[in-house]
């Protein structure tokens, strides 16, 4: 790696870590380019040499704050016997962490980041490759996808390969579960829940399992009718 790349990586980390500190101390809504520059010990103009907009800084800092979730999801899915079991467990872990940190997960998975947001994820793991240590190979393709739809497709393809569901059923499950999660997260962000976060997680998982059970039963019924 050239000296210039090493220096650029070091500068990126200065600004990302300063942003993380602001988020942890003041909240994600309080992040500004000026605050990050002041905390990192540089002027605002310097930041724009590395980040085109504040949303990218917030994204990278939020990715760093996702590490406890990334580490834990591997522990969750190892308890699943089938690909659908692992898909459900992955959602359980995702709901647990995302509902407790809705702004962080919104910044990573929903916030508008402009063109080619996946390249930001690639850049993040170039800067922090240690975050991928101990992550199962079956999870890595999903982690490099920013799109919730593509992340779900990556995990559900294993269920298709195991012939638990068909391609069309995988698409249905993927779309319905993502819409369900986004709706619940939006309610949490807007303080529109009539119950606590534990109940929100419980209800979301109940609905996800109902969706999967309905689609799986329908698939098995259709297969039986064809045979």
Automatic annotation (TrEMBL):
<dbReference type="Pfam" id="PF00440">
    <property type="entry name" value="TetR_N"/>
</dbReference>
<feature type="domain" description="HTH tetR-type">
    <location>
        <begin position="9"/>
        <end position="69"/>
    </location>
</feature>
<keyword id="KW-0238">DNA-binding</keyword>
<protein>
    <submittedName>
        <fullName>TetR/AcrR family transcriptional regulator</fullName>
    </submittedName>
</protein>
<dbReference type="InterPro" id="IPR009057">
    <property type="entry name" value="Homeodomain-like_sf"/>
</dbReference>
<dbReference type="InterPro" id="IPR001647">
    <property type="entry name" value="HTH_TetR"/>
</dbReference>
<feature type="DNA-binding region" description="H-T-H motif">
    <location>
        <begin position="32"/>
        <end position="51"/>
    </location>
</feature>
